[in-house]
Amino acid sequence: MVKTKRLCLLLLRLLAFGSTLSAAIVMATSHEKTNFFAVSVEAKYSNTPAFKYFVIANGIVSAYGLLVLFLPPESLLWRLVIALDVVFTMLLTSSISAALAIAQVGKNGNSYAGWLPICGQVPKYCDQVKGALIAGFIGVIIYTVLLLYSIHDVLDPLLMQKT
Amino acid sequence: MVKTKRLCLLLLRLLAFGSTLSAAIVMATSHEKTNFFAVSVEAKYSNTPAFKYFVIANGIVSAYGLLVLFLPPESLLWRLVIALDVVFTMLLTSSISAALAIAQVGKNGNSYAGWLPICGQVPKYCDQVKGALIAGFIGVIIYTVLLLYSIHDVLDPLLMQKT
What we know:
Two copies of one chain form a homodimer. Chain A is mainly alpha-helical.
């Protein structure tokens, strides 16, 4: 029972690592050249601060996720992992929200501010950004589940001890 | 000792409630009329989805913060509060990141995408958004401190029990 649970959690962490890593890679490799009024323009992630933040945050969380995978199950560091999970889940949430906000403007524009949508000019770039956002979103959801599970796991035994 | 600690935590929660509420109100009341090429334009928060999300998220977290203030100290619901704190801190983090990403474009523009900065036209509106973001940021920091403290509080006694 304990072994199955541990295997499940490890699998979830592996999946989370995979999603954040692929999110970072897909976003970092997104670029497309286009001609805009006879001027060659290259759309790439590094032109947008929010997308750069997304790549850096997902890279950091991937590195953390990889390290946690190799933590021995008996280690007392697992107590620290819950606190670190909180910090890194917040970092991930923050990066994906910022990237999503910018991507929304890129797709629909904002007529009040006079910002035109750019996805019509660079559809391939937009699709790749969308893919990266979906991968990042899966990562956030898995980390949130892991975090809520850890909290439930730590608090429930206490409640049972009391009653 | 326990009483001082509880008072401190209550004070922090009160402060967090104040910041999220003022963030929501300051953002919701931000608007400025300006003439842009002989056309009257009104800049307000509801024109930007990310700012609307910011107001809604800060409103929800304020309501939650108010409810928690009236929770009796002996209540077993405090165990649930940790899990809820995780969810609401993530919501707050997400909303402030999205609003910050849009505000950054509003302030500096994005020359690659052809989005011009708008803060030159509506400086009062921009200042008010900046104020709301700072208030929201204070709220996020307090909630993160509370959350990490709760986790430390729950885990440390366990560690002492073991050794």
